[in-house]
Specification:
With 133 residues, this protein is an alpha/beta fold. The protein contains two helices and eight strands; from the N terminus they run βαββββαβββ.
Length: 133
């Protein structure tokens, strides 16, 4: 078994496409599914599917609600976190920062991590390579 794609529902597919293009994804196919717009995007060694919700409701807050259960975030690895975030701001104008860059130890490794949000508020973790101790 191997991962095929992650599907993300969005209130505005055109804003979502712009955001994920800024992360390095490319649209490979656009389609309709019933009354909604959708697309496939490839990047970062994976695939995502965006689906526009015709009448969106407010989403739960997976980052801020400590009782939230379900998919939590997407995570991407970058060579230089600070440069990546600066480039993202230059492409998008502004980026919602949920957690500023900080060191995080996972097992016996320490990474520099930050959390941002897409335009629908979905958390995205950006991780820099392992920090030498």
């Amino acid at each position: 078994m191997r991962h095929h794609h992650t599907s993300i529902k969005t209130a505005d597919i055109f804003q979502a496409i712009s955001f994920y293009e800024a992360l390095g994804f490319d649209v490979t196919e656009r389609f309709t599914a019933g009354i909604t717009l959708g697309c496939w995007m490839n990047g970062a060694g994976t695939h995502i599917e965006l689906m526009q919700v015709p009448e969106p409701n407010n989403i739960p807050d997976p980052f801020g609600d400590e009782h939230y259960v379900g998919y939590y975030h997407l995570s991407f690895y970058v060579e230089n976190l600070e440069t990546f975030l600066q480039d993202l701001v230059s492409k998008l104008g502004k980026v919602k920062l949920l957690l500023p860059p900080r060191e995080q130890t996972i097992g016996d490794r320490t990474y520099l991590v930050a959390f941002i949000a897409d335009h629908d508020g979905l958390p995205i973790e950006i991780m820099e390579k392992e920090i030498e101790n």
